[in-house]
Amino acid sequence: MDIKEYISNFANHPVLFVGTGISLRYLKNSFTWDSLLERISYIVHQNEEVYLDIKAECTKRNEGFDYPQIASILENAFDKKLQKERYGEFGFINDSYYRTIKEGKPISRFKLYLAHLFSDLTIKNSKKEELDLLRQLSHNISSIITTNYDRLLETVSNFNPLVSNDILLTNPYGSLYKIHGCVLKPEKIVITAEYYKRTECQNELIKAQLLSLFIHNPIIFLGYGVQDENVNGILKTVFNYVGDNQEMIKRIRN
């Protein structure tokens, strides 16, 4: 049975669960988690090997690298560099940083730079036709869940983007759930170990909110590796909520 035949057996439209691979496919300026942090490290240290040393210090036993912890280390180093170089290459980030303080809502220079970096939505010329097809298909999509910070999916679907607490108690149809934040709200970007910890309770509520999508709609994963911790984390939460309900477990597995 091919994917088209399988999806046709469902009464409801599918939900897309979209990861970095989609942005990498269509945007000229996009990054994996690793390449993003490597770029930040080089900006700070101007030495490729420093990033390798940081990764070595943040290795999880049998689980690869602890990227949130790496991000925490680099956030601190990046902020200190820009503090010393007020009017240097990233003076515009400092301008934004001090403006957020005056407004009473300080945002780290690190997150402000990430928002700037991911704001570029230049499409690869070779992929414009394919992206137009995805735009047409959006009429047959229920909702989109993504861990991406950029606004590519908004431009393709015209869905209503929801970030952080906005995700809770919402109508799921026609919504774009940005569960790791958005460039328009850099203070909500989830990347460092501290912010993961701080939003842990909220994230559990968000996962519970998304539970109904997994029960009632087919889910199509795009741009994720099979072992991606974002996917596995949400699936683990979903099955924890389901408990021993075998009928519901079968429906979700299908």
Explain what you see:
This protein is of the alpha/beta class and 254 residues long. The chain has helices at 3-7, 20-26, 33-45, 48-57, 67-84, 91-102, 109-117, 128-137, 152-157, 193-198, 200-216, 229-242, 246-253; strands spanning 15-18, 59-60, 64-65, 143-146, 160-163, 175-178, 219-222. It has a five-stranded parallel β-sheet. Strands 2-3 form a two-stranded antiparallel sheet. The chain is globular.
Write the layout of secondary structure elements.
Blueprint: H1 3-7, E1 15-18, H2 20-26, H3 33-45, H4 48-57, E2 59-60, E3 64-65, H5 67-84, H6 91-102, H7 109-117, H8 128-137, E4 143-146, H9 152-157, E5 160-163, E6 175-178, H10 193-198, H11 200-216, E7 219-222, H12 229-242, H13 246-253
Parallel strand pairs: 1-4, 1-7, 4-6, 5-6
Antiparallel strand pairs: 2-3
